[in-house]
From TrEMBL, chain B:
The keyword ATP-binding applies. One of its GO terms (molecular function) is ATP binding. Residues 5-230 form the ABC transporter domain. This is ABC transporter ATP-binding protein. It is found in: Cell membrane. Keywords: Antibiotic resistance, ATP-binding, Nucleotide-binding, Transport. It comes from Prauserella endophytica. It is a peripheral membrane protein. CDD domains: ABC_DR_subfamily_A. Its main location: membrane. PANTHER family: ABC TRANSPORTER ATP-BINDING PROTEIN. InterPro entries: AAA+_ATPase (IPR003593), ABC_transporter-like_ATP-bd (IPR003439), ABC_transporter-like_CS (IPR017871), ABC_transporter_ATP-binding (IPR050763), P-loop_NTPase (IPR027417).
């Protein structure tokens, strides 16, 4: 035997198996997922810097994609749409790309070999996604407030519900994409979808400004529904049930498909 | 008490390829079993079925008495797994990853201590993707052990490690075994299997082709004790064979390494050294003994490189 013999005290590895407490698992998992997002430069660019730049740029400069401002200030028109973009960026694009690379590095397999139950694996990611969205909303909200944003107080509750449901819907779509393809394909596709939804998915251009049936279709996209729902809430103080229902359908459908298609590696 | 692992008639196909083809295996508790086999022999597939990652097509698998495909939730807290090639978030720090896995266990080992003994203390804040291959392997091993499991599955645990790290891991595996942990490992290192294993199982083509303790496997054909020596490459082995009594065969098994097959007696040794002297060749590392595990392995699984 090559063992030096004294390196390990007898009894060091005596088995004492058992699962940890769910609360601790969830907390540890969600904390790591959150800090990995916040530590990642490209994720910060995508989830925070680009939305911030658009918020400030579109509020101060006069190149809004629509002329239908009416009595609305630019920042009041822009902010709800930028909040929708923030959710799209972190819950969908960021999530999908991170999951694509996590799978390549085998972390899902690693974690599913522990006592961590599958539902907790999803729950940890979900909590992290909600924490990131919360941080985005706080930062964007503060900057918007400095730009004299005055949201409708009556719509704050509706906006919170929409943001949570939007995170769930986009998160499920992100898992669907990130869990199915190779990391490079996920990276490319998640960015393309982000760009297309930003320009033509009802975020920068209101569905109502799009011609004919296109506007109705865009309102049924998760991006269109979230942006319009947030506009109704934060501008008009209204609860947009149709937007809420649209997001719920997307969340349930994408979640159901993703649970079948997501591969560990 | 149920066996650590009990596999009967296991078959697993991937499309047209049959990865595991009627494999039987029984591993008692608190032992160390080494699964040997050429690449593609079905080792990893077998281990992944035991871990619950894959479902068998036919056959039964019981791990600690449980069916990994059905009772995974009950089984996973009791086992430790080191998948081939590790597994972690690309950007996660070594210590964070180990603490996450530790949080999944009821009474884990101290992660800081484990990193320290595995020589990862200085890398504890290094992101996983920037660890060297050997460091990633050691972190992966730490993740397999941190939950104080009853049974660990280690898929090529020392692959990519330098000799110092390998010896450290061997010490650790010996300590695990001494503390009553059951260990099933796959390896390509015969020395690893020979040094550590209570039981060696050689797998080829998805079936078990030989098994037993290392000494039993190497002693099985004890009458085939061999004379081995080293000298300059390219000696005329036909001439040496002719110098020996009938029935002896001399082969250059690799350049400069010669093997005389047949019953070795003092006469044979003397003939070989005398012939070498005649050729003006110094026979080095002259060795008489039974075959080692590598020779048994090559004999059973063939010497040709598989394509």
């Amino acid at each position: 035997m090559t063992a030096t013999g004294t390196r390990f005290e007898p009894g060091t590895f005596t088995p004492a198996p058992g699962a940890g407490r769910y609360g601790r698992m969830l907390l540890t998992h969600a904390r790591i997922e959150t800090s990995l997002t916040l530590r990642h430069g490209e994720q910060i660019l995508l989830t925070l810097l680009i939305p911030l730049a658009l918020l400030v740029g579109l509020s101060l400069l006069d190149f809004l994609p629509t002329g239908e401002l009416g009595s609305l200030s630019r920042v009041d028109w822009v902010t709800p749409r930028i909040l929708a973009l923030a959710v799209l960026s972190s819950a969908f694009t960021g999530q999908a790309i991170a999951l694509g690379f996590d799978r390549r590095y085998g972390v899902l397999k690693r974690l599913s070999a522990t006592a961590l139950p599958r539902w907790l694996l999803v729950a940890g990611r979900l909590v992290a996604a909600l924490v990131v969205v919360l941080l985005q909303v706080v930062v964007l909200g503060i900057v918007a407030a400095l730009l004299r944003w005055s949201p409708s107080g009556a719509g704050i509750g509706a906006a919170i519900v929409l943001l949570v449901l939007g995170t769930l819907a986009f998160g499920a779509l992100g898992v669907l994409l990130g869990g199915a393809l190779r990391a490079e394909a996920v990276l490319a596709l998640a960015n393309i979808v982000w760009f297309v939804l930003l320009l033509a998915g009802g975020i920068l251009m209101a569905p109502s400004s799009l011609p004919g049936v296109l506007g109705d279709l865009v309102a049924l996209l998760p991006s269109g529904a979230l942006a319009e729902g947030l506009r109704a809430a934060l501008v008009d103080g209204m609860f947009a049930w149709d937007a809420l229902a649209t997001l719920a359908v997307w969340a349930v459908a994408a979640g159901a498909i993703a649970t079948r298609t997501t591969k560990l590696t | 008490m149920s066996a650590a692992v009990e596999i009967t008639g296991l078959v697993k196909r991937f499309g047209a390829v049959t990865a595991v083809d009627g494999l039987d295996l029984k591993m008692p508790r608190a032992g160390l079993l080494a699964l040997l086999g050429p690449n593609g022999a079905g080792k990893t597939t077998t281990v992944e079925i035991c871990e619950g990652f894959l479902r068998p097509d036919t056959g039964t698998v019981r791990v600690l008495g449980l069916d990994p495909a059905r009772d995974g939730a009950a089984l996973r807290p009791r086992i430790g797994v080191m998948p081939q090639g590790g597994g972690a978030y690309p950007g996660v720090r070594a210590e964070e990853m180990l603490r996450l896995v530790a949080a999944c266990a009821a009474t884990p080992l101290d992660p800081a201590w484990l990193l320290d003994v595995l020589g990862l203390a200085s890398a504890r804040r290094t992101p996983f993707k920037r660890l060297s291959g050997g460091q990633q392997q050691r972190l992966s091993l730490a993740c397999a052990l941190v939950g104080r499991p009853e049974l660990v599955f280690l898929d090529e645990p020392t692959a990519g490690m330098d000799p110092q790290a390998r010896r450290l891991v061997w010490d650790l595996l010996a300590a695990l075994r001494a503390d009553g942990v059951s260990v099933l490992l796959t390896t390509h290192l015969m020395e690893e299997a020979e040094t550590l294993a209570d039981e060696v199982v050689i797998v080829d083509g998805g079936r078990v082709i030989a098994q037993g303790s290392p000494s039993a496997l190497t002693a099985e054909h004890a009458e085939d004790a061999q004379l081995r020596f080293k000298a300059r490459p390219g000696l005329n082995t036909d001439l040496l064979s002719a110098a020996l009594p009938e029935g002896y065969l001399v082969r250059e098994s690799s350049p400069g390494a010669y093997r005389v097959a047949g019953l070795v007696n003092p006469q044979v040794v003397s003939t070989v050294t005398a012939w070498c002297a005649q050729q003006g060749v110094l026979a080095e590392e002259l060795h008489v003994g039974k075959r080692d595990l590598e020779e048994v392995f090559l004999e059973l699984t063939g010497r040709e490189l598989r394509t």
